[in-house]
Write a sequence for this structure.
């Protein structure tokens, strides 16, 4: 099963959970409603703690080497985020976590095996719209920007590996199911379009190229609204 197959299976399972939960919730949505202000007795702050699967796209190239390809390891990590609600419908979310990726050669450079390893710090800021008329079921969508810092980089079959820090676009969808006014369960899926340039030294020769990581970030965890 490929990484994309894993991502599709997890998203399909989440969609089934969302549909089942929505059927139990109040699905009557009044038309023409403006965003609801945050209640005076309610804090605008929210936090979540998730287990996060990082599922990368296995693609990339080394410049000047026809048929070259790259693949990257997938990981499961803890992830923490903080949200601020401007209204009950509109919020900003900052996602924090760190992970690593092992880089392997593919295609015409598959003989290189594991080229190297890099750690990633990918803080992501999204602006979200939360649907509030479904009772305890609170779906949301969002979009934003990611800036990924690559650190603790090391070569294996390459003498050195230097992946450059880069910006990416993030798309997001998910839902909370609130147990009470403060605690809830969360499922979240983000797609980050992340395609950094890199330099490496292989066999004494300098090479460069582009890694097409484009990871899915698939998370499940708990929500706490202050």
């Amino acid at each position: 099963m490929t990484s994309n197959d894993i991502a599709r299976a997890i998203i399909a399972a989440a969609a089934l959970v969302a549909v089942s939960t929505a059927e139990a919730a109040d699905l009557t949505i009044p038309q023409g409603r403006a965003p609801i202000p945050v209640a005076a007795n309610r804090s605008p702050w929210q936090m979540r703690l998730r287990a996060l699967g990082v599922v990368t796209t296995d693609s990339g190239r080394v410049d000047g080497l026809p048929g070259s390809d790259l693949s990257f390891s997938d990981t499961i990590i803890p992830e923490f985020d903080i949200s601020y609600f401007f209204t009950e419908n509109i919020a900003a979310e900052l996602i924090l976590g760190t992970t690593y990726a092992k880089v392997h050669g593919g295609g015409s450079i598959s003989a290189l095996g594991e080229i190297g390893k890099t750690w990633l710090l990918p803080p992501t800021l999204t602006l979200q719209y939360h649907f509030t008329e479904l009772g305890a079921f609170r779906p949301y969508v969002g979009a934003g920007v990611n800036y990924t810092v690559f650190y603790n980089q090391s070569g294996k079959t390459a003498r050195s590996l230097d992946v450059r820090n880069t910006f990416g676009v993030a798309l997001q969808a998910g839902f909370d199911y609130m147990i009470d006014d403060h605690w809830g369960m969360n499922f979240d899926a983000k797609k980050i379009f992340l395609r950094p340039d890199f330099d490496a030294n292989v066999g004494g020769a300098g090479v460069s190229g582009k890694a097409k990581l484009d990871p899915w970030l698939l998370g499940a965890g708990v929500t706490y609204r202050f």
